[in-house]
Amino acid sequence: MTSQRSLSITTYDRVKRLGDVLVAGGALAILSPVMLGTALLVRVKLGRNVLFRQERPGVDGQVFEILKFRTMLDPDPTRGLMSDAERMTPFGDRLRATSLDELPSLLNVLRGEMSLVGPRPLRTWYLDRYSHEQARRHEVLPGLTGLAQISGRNALSWDDRLDLDVHYVETRSLLVDLSILFGTIPKVFRREGISEEGQATRSDFFGPRRLGPYEIRPADEHSDGRLWDVLDRSTGTVLARCGIAPAANGAADVDIMVAPTAGEQDLIRRRAIEMLAGIGRELGLQQLRVATPPDGSVRSFDLSRSAAGGKVTEHDSSAVLTSSLERGRGA
To answer: Is the pTM of this model over 0.85?
Structure first.
């Protein structure tokens, strides 16, 4: 059954590529007046550079240049224009709300760098931060729209969004793609999930907070990012308590106390370190120093480095290991 499903998906991917070319080519021809008018407005409102160009990872992590209409002013420290919120304009906000800024990406579809439907292309530096499971989103071409986009878009948590991307990879078919395409239309008109609450766009992805049966959450609302619990996702049982104590030079001392009654204590400890790596990045840390049993010896993990493997291993204990996309990275 698995081999039949794989064959079916391979056949569909080939047919889908033909559909992408026909639809993208036709859409570019029909919408060319709209694109020209939008380009002129961007030129008047935001300046000479009409197109936004940025490197994004595609299938197998291969990097390509995505094309969009600009929606923000250029960074300018002298005018206080640095963050997304500072650079966003009412005009750009309307462009994003109507998804008109995405129209140039039809050229990416035509060139075979994207598809009409698939996981949205994210930032290149996220490649090192995905778990093995999350990295599977790069088994297919990225899309103009996707399952996550019709399920909440930027209003979703990162873990929920990436779970939906992987679910699409596993279940993609003609019916799934058609349902996503038709489901996108009302979302655009309702302008739902355009940005994360409290953000001009959305916050960065620093790393997974869910790994298989485990999840990490703040121990309490008063811990100020210093105390975290690793839970069994199915039962809510606390399996480990983790403490982060910032030290000098961007480092932090980490203590992981696994419950005596928890099974697979070594595995829980390793998964805790992987999830704490993302939390450490979010806190602006560069290194975690983890006390390990039974003698309390300290192992250091560099948060600026990453390698393939999906777990922390003895032969390369200096890096926190996440996704398996190193083979496909073009930059």
So the answer is: no
Are the CB atoms for 55 and 64 separated by under 8 Å? yes
CB 109 within 8 A of CB 144: yes
Rounded distance, CA 322 to CA 312, Å?
8
254 contact partners, CB below 8 Å, separation of at least 6? 242, 243, 244, 245, 273, 276, 288, 289, 290, 291
CB 307 within 8 A of CB 319: yes
DSSP letters for 251-288? EEEEEEEE-TT-SSHHHHHHHHHHHHHHHHHHTT-SEE
pLDDT value of position 218: 93
311 three-state secondary structure = coil
CA distance 127 to 306: 9
- Contact call for residues 141 and 328 (beta carbons, < 8 A): no
SS3 179: helix
Q: Which two tokens stand for residue 229?
A: 């619990």
Q: CA-CA distance, 51 to 105, in Å (whole number)?
A: 10
What does the DSSP assignment read for 121-143? P--GGGGGT--HHHHGGGGS--E
Tens digits of per-residue pLDDT, 176-189? 999 999 999 888 88
Q: How far is CA 215 from CA 61, 159, 236, 318, in A?
A: 26, 10, 9, 24
Sequence-separated (6 or more) residues with CB below 8 Å from residue 2:
none
